[in-house]
Amino acid sequence: MRIKIGIVWFRHDLRLRDNEALTQAANQCDVILPIYVFDKRLYENKTDHGFRQVGPYRAKFILESLSYLKKSFGERNIDLIIRFGKTEDIIYEIAHKVKSTWVYCNRERTPEEEFIQDELEKKLWQIGQELRFTRGKMLYHTGDLPFPIKHTPDTYAAFYREVGKIVPVRKPLPIPDKILPYMDNVMSEPLPTMEDLGFSNDEIPETNIFKGGEYEALRRMEEFIKDNFKATALSLKQKKKKAGVLVTHMSPYLNTGCISPKTIYEYINRFMGNKYHSNRASCIIHGLMRRDFFKLQEKKYVEKIFEKGGIRGLDLSELTDDMDAFNLWKEAKTGVPIVDAFMRELNQTGFIPFEGRRILSQFLIEELKVNWQLGAEYFQSILIDYNPCSNWGNWNTMAGVNFDAKEDRYCNFITKAKKLDPKGEFVRRWIPELSTLGNNYIHEPDKVSEAELKKANIELGKDYPMPIVNTERWV
Ligand SMILES: Cc1cc2nc3c(=O)[nH]c(=O)nc-3n(C[C@H](O)[C@H](O)[C@H](O)COP(=O)(O)OP(=O)(O)OC[C@H]3O[C@@H](n4cnc5c(N)ncnc54)[C@H](O)[C@@H]3O)c2cc1C
Fold this sequence. Notes:
By secondary structure, the chain is of the alpha/beta class. Helices cover 45% and strands 6% of the residues.
């Protein structure tokens, strides 16, 4: 009898644990052949407004994650095949060559990913092979939801009411016990370099603040738990004093698939029995649920979330493609320190927290009246944790084009800055040219007297720009 060969096509799921496609292939086939393709279109084609689709921070993170995955497979005498080209052609050729039985993948739903899936599926049919889909990418299994996807509630609050605390989260799958390699000369190639992916030397970040890979994701999660939850009664008291919003910094790992949302949920859930921990941990669970919500919204409305008028089909003609204003925003030259500080952090690391993303997007839309799609595309390019549904979904909210957005999105950027950064430490770190200003002035240098500016040795308009918007209305 012919042995069953399962090709496992890795995509945004660069892990062995809780990987449904891998588990199914290992259960149904005698041997497996894992493959990852750097799709050349993603690295060569630009977004509508001319940005790289994958910027250097994410590319480097993916390479690191793949290097670890290759090592994990290597320890099991399995070679992870890595290629660069058109995904559907490459996988088809390999499937044809090795006469595989099935190709497995975790299903993606965004238009570009679906196009590749469909093309591959058609090609495989021609040789009597099948693409087998799994769907273990979200916190909730879509089969467990109390509504069909097309009836997903349109606000997060309604989604939470119908799903949170009602639908159980499935247990993460263990690494399959038995993964046997397909042994033949499929011709392994080394990992591409950043240069192979089209990045020039001066674009390549020396280090990322995040190192990719499944091991690193789990290590960071353990550390997070140790620092935040494994508190003795005494330290718990101290922790209560400085209790604030907990954030995991797991988004790069989640979106490259080095860790699954169910695995994070399992870590966090261990502490939910304790009321104090439960309150603090709930924001993380909400984050994971919001991620699912945006994925489901995308499945429901498909390309509408990428359109200027969004799922509500609004007329946003007042927002224009004003490239001068956009470039000042992108280059951190708005003259509003909190905005420029977050932008410099983003440009130099590929990551900023939610508040930073909110401030940048609100400033672009509400103050500069620039088309939000430009901002979303720039984030797509620069973010290390870019995920189409989360990025475009959140931009939809900020632009007010989905049903989740607040009607009044006015933001006083100075009040906000003083709340987020009362001592000005964050601004001083990213805008050292303002570091000589006192705490009272650092967030609004344009309100500082000539004498004070002179004392601080700052010439506004030369050392740091004058604000490009009217700041009077924030007083
Ligand atoms: C304009 C804008 C663009 C954004 N683009 C992205 C993006 O491309 N990729 C991305 O993962 N997040 C995006 N976010 C959401 C959010 O800012 C990040 O998920 C979060 O800052 C990641 O930090 P964390 O891992 O410490 O989050 P935690 O607070 O620890 O939350 C745990 C996880 O929940 C998910 N999550 C939390 N908040 C959100 C949210 N509002 N929307 C969707 N998922 C959420 C993330 O996967 C996160 O890792 C965007 C937000 C805005 C306002």
